[in-house]
Amino acid sequence: MDYAIIGNCASAALIGADASIDWLCLPFFDSPSLFGRILDEERGGFFRISAQEVIKIEQSYSFHTPILKTRFETRDGVFEVMDYMPRFLTSGGEVHCPSEIHRNIHVISGHPRIRIELKPCLNYGLAEAYLKRFPDYLKISSTEGEYNSYYLYSDLDFDLLLNGEAIELKASSYFLLSYHEKLSLINQEKIYLEYEKTKSYWMDWVYRTRVPERYKESVIRSVITLKLLMFQRTGAVIAAPTTSLPEIIGGDRNWDYRFCWVRDASMIIDLYARMGHVHSAERYIEFILGRMLVKKENIAVMYGINGERVMDEKVLRHLAGYKGSKPVRVGNAAYQQKQNDVYGELIEALYSYFIANPYHQKDFDEELWTVVRSLANKVALTWREPDCGIWERRGPPRHFVHSKLMNWVAMDRAAKISRVIGKERHAPRYLAIAEEIKADILAHGWSSELNSFVMHYESKDFDASNLMMLHYGFLPNNDYRIIGTVEAASKHLLRNGFVMRYTADDELGTPKNAFIVCTFWLINALYLTGRQEDARVMFDKMIGCVNRLGLLSEDIEPETGHLTGNFPQGYSHLALIQTAFLLETNYQWNSGARLFSSDVGRGTTKEPML
Which class in CATH covers the domain with range 216-591? Predict the structure, then answer.
């Protein structure tokens, strides 16, 4: 997956090695695409800056930012394109992250000649756009489907641009593509100022982030990527900024990931809280509180970025799909599923928040305690019921072992929270239910024949999610059942150094590609069970598979190492960070402690740090 991501927590864009914007949705992550060539070479649309007489093109991120720099060396001169979406603090301390993208062109030497290819195809490539020239901008409007319009500003000649003619660069120039018509004057001075503010914002933000030294750059790129997946307006955290990038090229495991899964988002926020960055954790928790307005409300599996509970899934039949992989889907029917594991992930994140937060807000904490008790009561009523599991199987519900594990986590952490906040009288009940769940898992989820925990009760299938028992401290690391499960995963799920979620056939056929987060889970498990050198070797191989810009997708082809699936994937980058900390600091994630005891992530502004 040879793309870079730029973004500002309102939306994001994917840009290829040829400086072509091949994926952009405005104004927000879940809006219809303006450029979608990644899903259809012919109909998707793109915005490319190219040059004549090119000798070499190089691409990298500006130091510790999501600002993408593409350097063109041509026979006529050298220039750079700086792609970014503005994000910085205003004089009042508010975050400014408009729904727009800037493409700054900086001439380094000579008089290079560029060519602009602007092919907008709105509403997921439903039709080419209508372009209308105005004195100070070019208006881009939809011609089919729902009405959308965008505004392109530039100091270059629009006539040359629209005619596809070469443009000789005699000075630095810019493009500003916005969902909204701009009210202020757009000129080179304003563009330069917003570039410098954005650059300073990200460099300062990274400077305040503690990272391990050995894997510093990989962790920083991953932390920046996770930040880009956080929706500023509500605090929701999306799984990935794309839809329908296939798990298997040519297959139909193609899903829309531009939504907030409680599981994924809670684990990301759990990490942030443990690192001491409580502000981002608070934003997400406030988002969840807004969904659970009263005690009778149940938590959903996933939400839209504005808290929507319904995300109807439909197929866009006019699109060919990434490398011919149909269908292209928008929406995700997983919102209708029952996934009992989400209670555990959410309560675990709340536990980390209670432990990590040095500023106790009485009213806020009271609301959280109500949420914890409501979720724990729900688990007490439903943990015996089957569900669709962490892998969102679309077949009949089963008693998935991982879901039972997370029910145990929910009750165990609820008991710990009750002690932390001085409500010890609740702990015995929660712990009693936790012990009941554990006994059930040990009785029905363990196979003596396979010497491993299995995918679901009465099955003989292996499941990488059971490796998370070490992460959550379900059994001691030296327990024979833990050792057996780790060995079984190494033997049956490992493919050329990468780990499959499972290998059994499912409703869509036979899985072929490894799941990146599972590979990190096995690395952690190896390390925690004493095979530390094996873990380090495997980790070095895995981080060697990031793309040229340090990004990971959801899946990987075991034979080739090619990245597949939606991109970049928050879950994968989360796991990379966790593993890096484990290998360098021996940090035990089930300890309930912060990664660092210093005042990481605290600030005096209203900006939600990290």
Answer: mainly alpha
pLDDT at 499 over 80: yes
pLDDT at 360 over 60: no
Render pLDDT for 443-466 as a digit per residue (tens, 0 to 9): 999 999 999 999 999 999 999 999
Distance between CA 99 and CA 97 in Å, rounded? 7
Phi, psi dihedral angles at 305 (to 5 degrees): -70, -15
Distance CA(499)–CA(525), nearest Å, equals 12
HEC sequence for 544-565: CCCCCCCCCCCEECCCCCCEEC
- CA-based torsion, 423, 424, 429, 435: positive or negative: positive
Indicate the SS3 state at residue 173. Answer: strand
Which CATH number is 3-207 given?
A: 2.70.98
Q: Tell me if 3-207 shares its fold with 216-591.
A: no
Neighbours of 554 (CB within 10 A): 27
- Displacement of CA 507 from its chain's centroid (Å): 25
Q: Beta strands of 275-386 (E only): which ranges?
A: 302-303, 314-315, 329-330
275 and 320 Cβ atoms separated by less than 8 Å: no
Closest of 175, 202, 200 to residue 83, by C-alpha: 175
Tell me the C-alpha to C-alpha distance, in Å, between residue 225 and each of 37, 202, 252, 287, 439: 22, 12, 27, 20, 39
Q: Is a pLDDT exceeding 90 seen at residue 395?
A: no
Spatial CB neighbours of 293, under 8 Å, sequence gap ≥ 6: none
3-state secondary structure of 207: helix
**Spatial contact of 392 and 423, defined as CB atoms under 8 Å apart:** no
Span between the terminal Cα atoms of the chain, in Å:
26
- Six token digits for residue 289: 């509180």
Tens of pLDDT, residues 25-48: 999 999 999 999 999 999 999 999
Q: Which residue has the tokens 């806020």?
A: 364
DSSP tally for the chain: helices H, then strands E: 15, 30
Burial label, 58 (beta-carbon count in 10 A; 0-12, 13-18, 19+): exposed
Look at residue 593 in the predicted model and tell me its pLDDT.
Answer: 60
CB 313 within 8 A of CB 275: no
Per the CB < 8 A criterion, the answer to whether 176 and 191 are in contact is: yes
Mean pLDDT score of the chain, rounded to an integer? Answer: 92
Residue 462, CB half-sphere, CA atoms under 13 Å: how many? 22
Q: Is the pTM of this model over 0.90?
A: yes
Q: How many CB atoms lie within 10 A of CB 189?
A: 9
Write out the two tokens for 273.
């809280």
CA–CA dist 166, 422 (Å, integer): 71
Rounded distance between C-alpha atoms, residue 73 and residue 75, angstroms: 7
Tokens 């986590």, residue located: 409
pLDDT at 586: 73
Angle, alpha carbons 225-228-231 (nearest 5°): 145
Give domain limits for the chain. Answer: 3-207, 216-591
Q: Is the dihedral of CA 299, 305, 309, 315 positive or negative?
A: negative
- Pick from 87, 24, 75: nearest CA to 51: 75
CA pair distance 543, 523, nearest whole angstrom: 12
d(CA 273, CA 230): 15
Q: Tell the residue number behind the tokens 């005619």, with chain if given.
A: 163
